[in-house]
Design a protein that fits this description.
The protein is mainly β. The protein has 2 helices and 29 strands. 13% of the residues lie in helices and 35% in strands.
Length: 424
């Protein structure tokens, strides 16, 4: 009779209490995955075999298997926080050493990289500098740019308006923006040059007289369109030459636009001080009408903007990081990638909420969140530890009872041996 079985029982029970204690200690650790102590019995090797007469030598700790079940997701006040809802790990780069984590508590370092508390950089797909589209190439550290967004000069202006069919021909035939009696209606919009400087662009509408030769006579349906940029007509005319319209709108008798075909007209080139020369503006009047109702502008937009500072950014469910700028524009800054493994339990824990791959885990399967079997990203949230405190407290009681029982078996064997020693 030996003490081996009882000693091994004490040892594995102690290991189980270590695992339980570690799980409880990390109950508030973001992204922590609890471990489970797994045991195996021990038998002495025998060449001849003992059949059903073998008595085991106790137990051993076979493995501490991490349980990669989903933890609860808690909303935070930080837009930098990210939680993975589903499978996958963040791919982190620490000076070339790649590791994997479920902890989405990130921050921006002094160089604009997204990093965790250990300084490892979050990796993902980059953005093409020419097209602005995501390039799904080899993942690399994501850096948030601090430079201003470049300005975009205005090129297209879209307008939907109603010109009043009841209007009278202006009493002053020669158009001049300084003479209100030379046009019927006007409106204004802000446009931009290549430097991002804003300019006031005005549009003027002048109803033309009815053609007296028309048989039968019809209501006037032709309008000249004039444009000025910061009060200067485009194209400019030098006095005393007559003002030149950008184009002419002709409406059908049912009030719909007849010409120009496509509804567009383009100014002559003009140049703003210091900006790229020969800028033009194309006006699109598609869906504009001439009904017997007051003049009104239903929509008026243009495609230019000034330069802007980065004012914030957010991460979408598919990992795309979208930057918001002070000029009201937004653009894609990068895309977070996730990595999954055929056998996540084969990952090697490095501490600090990170793992590294191993031959047992297999190679990482990298992709955008929400694709294949990868989970999605929830911005402004973190994944809690998956430790089940209630379950672990019950497991602790069980492990304590097992420990006590093994200690009792050693005590019993000691008493038996003492009886044998005391025999005379």
């Amino acid at each position: 009779m030996g003490f081996q079985q009882g000693l091994s029982g004490l040892n594995v029970s102690s290991k189980q209490l270590d695992v339980i204690g570690n799980n409880i200690a990390n109950a508030n650790t973001v992204g922590f995955k609890m471990g489970q102590a797994q045991f195996a019995d021990v038998y002495a090797a025998s060449l001849s075999g003992a059949g059903g007469n073998q008595v085991g030598l106790g137990a051993r700790l076979a493995a501490v298997a991490q349980q990669f079940t989903q933890g609860n997701i808690t909303v935070t006040n930080s837009t930098m926080d990210m939680a993975i809802n589903g499978n996958g790990f963040y791919r982190m780069d620490n000076n070339g050493a790649v590791s994997y984590s479920r902890n989405g508590q990130f921050q921006i370092d002094q160089n604009g990289f997204i990093v965790n508390s250990q300084g490892a950089m979050l990796t993902g797909y980059q953005v093409s500098p020419t097209t602005g589209a995501i390039v799904a190439a080899a993942p690399s550290p994501i850096q948030i740019p601090t430079a201003n967004m470049a300005a975009k000069p205005s090129a297209n202006v879209a307008m939907v308006a109603n010109l009043d069919a009841r209007s009278a021909v202006p009493i002053t035939a020669a158009f001049s923006p300084a003479v209100p009696t030379s046009f019927n209606n006007s409106t204004a919009i802000t446009t931009y040059d290549s430097l991002g400087n804003s300019h006031v662009t005005n549009l003027y509408f002048q109803l033309q007289a009815v053609n007296p030769a028309a048989v039968p006579p019809v209501a006037a349906n032709t309008w000249n369109v004039y444009a000025t940029v910061d009060g200067v007509q485009v194209p400019a005319v030098v006095a005393p030459a007559a003002a030149t319209p950008v184009g002419t709108l002709v409406f059908n008798t049912n009030g719909t636009l007849a010409t120009p075909v496509g509804g567009t007209m383009t100014t002559a080139p003009f140049t703003s001080l210091g900006a790229t020369p020969n800028q033009t503006l194309t006006f699109n009047f598609t869906n504009s009408t001439q009904f017997g109702a007051n003049f009104g502008v239903n929509a008026l937009t243009q495609d230019g903007y000034g330069s802007g500072l980065l004012s914030g950014f957010s991460t979408a469910a598919d990992g795309v990081i979208m930057g918001r700028y002070s000029n009201g524009q937004s653009k894609v800054l990068g895309q977070v990638v996730l990595a999954n493994f055929a056998n996540p339990q084969g990952l090697v824990s490095l501490g600090g909420n990170v793992w590294s791959q191993s031959p047992t885990s297999g190679a990482p399967l990298i992709g955008a969140p929400g694709t294949a079997q990868l989970g999605k990203i929830q911005s402004g949230a973190v994944e809690d530890s998956n430790t089940d405190l209630t379950g672990e407290l019950v497991n602790m009681i069980t492990a304590q009872r097992v420990y006590q029982a093994n200690a009792q078996s050693i005590k019993t064997q000691d008493q038996i041996l003492q009886t044998l020693v005391n025999m005379r």
